[in-house]
């Protein structure tokens, strides 16, 4: 568990390449309503043979931005059977692995989530899935570049106990990987061991607070 001070202040931007800026702008600005807030015209930038490019940004709320690179003259690469404009895979790569790389955008509640689902369903990129899992509810679609995009709302606040559980889980995971036995049973066994090891410390801290 880290003890270092937290100095970061959230996400400035997430960036992806695009081969289709027309559809990308239409999807994010015109369908979803994310305004374009910044662009960079990079001519003669970078090392030799680096193409000119446009770097453009959408406002996705609370100062966070989603950005794209469009490189002039760069043609799409050979596409695999699965994937997106940046990463493609053959049919032998499991779909769950392909879809693990995605962007999730937070919304305030059910009304906002449903409105984004309505906007998507009225476009060329309809909502593909809506489900509740753990402490959130989400909708999913793929943007014009093939990137998996999620909109998500919290069903309830995450508790301090769940934060503690998350840290125990990660510590246990790193331990079983170091031992060369990464599987769920080993992880849960190691997590139980960590709980037993740390329980006296938690008891002392609780007693100190109650005094």
Tell me what you see in this structure.
With 211 residues, the protein is of the alpha+beta class. Helix content is 35%, strand content 27%. It contains 5 helices and 10 strands; from the N terminus they run βαβββββαβαβββαα. α4 crosses α5 (184-210). The protein is globular. The model has no long low-confidence stretch (mean pLDDT 90).
Quaternary structure type: single chain
Radius of gyration: 22 Å
Number of strands: 10
How far is the N terminus from the C terminus? 27 Å
- Biggest β-sheet description: 4 strands, mixed
Order of helices and strands: EHEEEEEHEHEEEHH
Structural class: alpha+beta
Indicate the topology:
Elements (H helix, E strand, L loop, with lengths): L12 E5 L3 H11 L4 E7 L10 E9 L2 E8 L10 E2 L4 E2 L5 H4 L3 E5 L3 H12 L7 E5 L2 E7 L5 E7 L5 H19 L5 H27 L1
Parallel strand pairs: 1-4, 7-10
Antiparallel strand pairs: 2-3, 3-4, 5-6, 8-9, 9-10
Task: Fill in the keyword field for this structure.
211 residues; single chain; 27% strand; alpha+beta
Task: Give a brief description.
The chain is of the alpha+beta class and 211 residues long. Helices cover 35% and strands 27% of the residues.
């Amino acid at each position: 568990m880290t003890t270092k001070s937290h100095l970061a202040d959230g996400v400035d931007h997430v960036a992806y390449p695009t081969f289709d800026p027309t559809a990308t702008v239409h999807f994010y600005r015109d369908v979803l309503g994310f305004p374009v807030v910044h662009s960079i015209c990079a001519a003669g930038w970078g090392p030799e043979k680096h193409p000119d490019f446009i770097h453009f940004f959408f406002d996705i709320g609370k100062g966070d931005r989603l950005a794209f690179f469009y490189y002039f003259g760069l043609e799409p690469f050979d596409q695999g059977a699965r994937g997106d404009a940046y990463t493609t895979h053959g049919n032998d790569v499991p779909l769950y692995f392909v879809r693990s790389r995605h962007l999730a955008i937070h919304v305030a509640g059910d009304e906002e989530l449903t409105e984004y689902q309505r906007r998507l369903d009225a476009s060329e990129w309809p909502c593909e899935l809506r489900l509740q899992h753990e402490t959130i509810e989400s909708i999913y679609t793929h943007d014009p570049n093939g990137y998996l995009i999620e909109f998500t709302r919290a069903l309830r606040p995450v508790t301090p106990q769940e934060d503690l559980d998350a840290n125990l889980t990660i510590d246990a995971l790193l331990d079983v990987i170091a031992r060369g036995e990464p599987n769920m049973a080993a992880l849960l066994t190691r997590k139980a061991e960590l709980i037993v090891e740390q329980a006296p410390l938690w008891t002392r801290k609780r007693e100190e607070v109650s005094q």
